[in-house]
Each structure stands twice: as structure tokens, then as C-alpha cells.
Amino acid sequence: MKLRALFFLWLCVVLSACSSVNKQKQVSSAAEGIFKRPDRIVIPATINGQPARFVFDTGADAAYLTVEAARRLGLPLTPAPSGRDGWLAGVTSPCTVTIHGVTNRRIFPVVELGGPGAKNFPLDGFLGWTCYQQAIFAIDASNLTLTAYSRVPDEVKTWQKFPLRRDARKFIFEVPLSGGGTGEVFVDTGAPDGVGLYPEKWSQWKATHPNQRLGISHAYMPYLRTGIIFR
To answer: What is the pTM of this model?
Structure first.
């Protein structure tokens, strides 16, 4: 039975892409070993029997390792062809990966992190949306945990449903707009920048909240064109 996405923004977000789970990306029926880090959901794994830690990042389109992690894990690296994106350093050789109790063989793209402190990034990589979009899971934004389910819990079946952008490689769902039409919400669990609005919506919000105190920072959000971004 196919189900639409379920979105509940209170203490948690619950998603269901479908009740059947892709065999290569299957998750277990309960959360396993998820632990907290400030501002991030961290997912433990093993790679060739060695421990690794990933950021759960719905703004990423795949699973990536950092260059430092590939070196630490002793994974041979094939350099990326010249002319490719500058952040892509190459790809690993096939390795054995266990995440959520499921083991398979895979190749990781390897990225070179930039900016101050990149060399001290405390985790080994990123697990992007495509690793989870065929699974059923709950995101607890208050406790920074992720719980996987074998089926959609009965108590959420009556909640309001919002359709997922199934053609997107990032977590995007559609919402009805008050003036008619449809907008999009992009949820990026890997971004540090909070809620973002594209320029027109930002101008509308300021016009309707003239006395609201503001603290303004800046960030580059390449996918924020016609919608809202949540982290």
C-alpha cells in the first residue's frame, strides 16, 4: 500500500515514503544506537568492521565520506576526473558497510570539506535523503533521534498528509498556499541556518510583522527558490 508523506512538526517529524523498503537501503524496525551531538542527528555505522559516524543530512543527495575518514579507514581512493565539482575528491573502493543493523557492499563518493575547522570535522560523512526516502521513520527534532519503523504507526494515519516531491533527491514536500496554488518546504537536517524564506516570502513576512525583533545572518541556500527551508 502506497502512502503519502506524513509531516508532524512539534517534537518530531514522521515520514512515510512507502510501506515496502528498498532491500539495499532497508532500515530496522527500531532505532539502533542513535546518539546525540549538539544540533545534529548522528548515526553510527561500521565500515570494513571499523566504527564510523555519519550526520543524518536530508539536504544531501547521497551518502558521502570525508577525505579524512577515507584515510582513517584505510579505503583506497580513485581520484575524481578533472573538471568535476571541486568538492568531490574521488570515490572509494567497494567496502562492507553496516548501518541500522543492515550490511551491504557499496562505494562512497569522497568529499573535501572546506572552510575554517573543516579538518577538525568530528564525524566521518553524511547520509543523504536517498538513503532513507523509501523507508518509514520518525525524526525527533527535540531529542535529535531517528526511529525506523517496519510499518506506518496507526496513531499517525489520521494526521494531515503532505505529498513528497518524489522526483527530488532531497527532502522536499508540497504545501497548499493561502492564496491558492502549491508551495514547497525543503527540510535540511544537515544545515545550521534555521528557517529560511525566499526573498518574496521574506518581504511578506517583514510587512506583516513590523514590530518583530530580528537577528539577521546570511547563508547560501541553492535550493531555496520558491519555498521554505526548515532545519
So the answer is: 0.72
